[in-house]
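Input.
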Amino acid sequence: MKGDDVMTNSISELISVLSGKRSTMEELLHLLEEEQRCIVELDLPNLEAQMEKKKRLLVDLETSNNLCRQLVKQAAVELDLPEVASLSPLLPKVASSQRDILKGLQTRLLELGTALDRLLAFNGELLQGSLRTVTRSLEFFGNMFNRSKTYGEAGCMVKGTNDVRLICKEI
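Output.
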């Protein structure tokens, strides 16, 4: 009887932590969508604020991940299972009411993880594309204003001039 109470408490605590993790991941998902909007609209002050919030949520997520690992190991010991690293091996030994809750949480967390990975990759591509555009623009203007070498007679490189203008006033 005492073992059942401990098992129930451990599994109940795991359910509670997984529910908190789900909430954190949902908040992070909304934050990444807002970050995407800031990138597209070039709202840099708000983007920086979003990044700070994202860092905080990622730390919270890391903390809940570590706690989940500990609780899964603790539940495995209480259920007399060998070393378990994930939730799935625990499910057959858990009471049916808790099993249904755990399965639902597991499914939702996997869906959220996939959505987060997709949004993180997309936002990263948006930022990288923006940086590539800025770099190309800087290189273009750098080449326009600082021509140090150019092709001269017979294809040899010769020293160029630095008096380049963007607009030529020829008539």
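The first strand starts at residue 149 and ends at 151.
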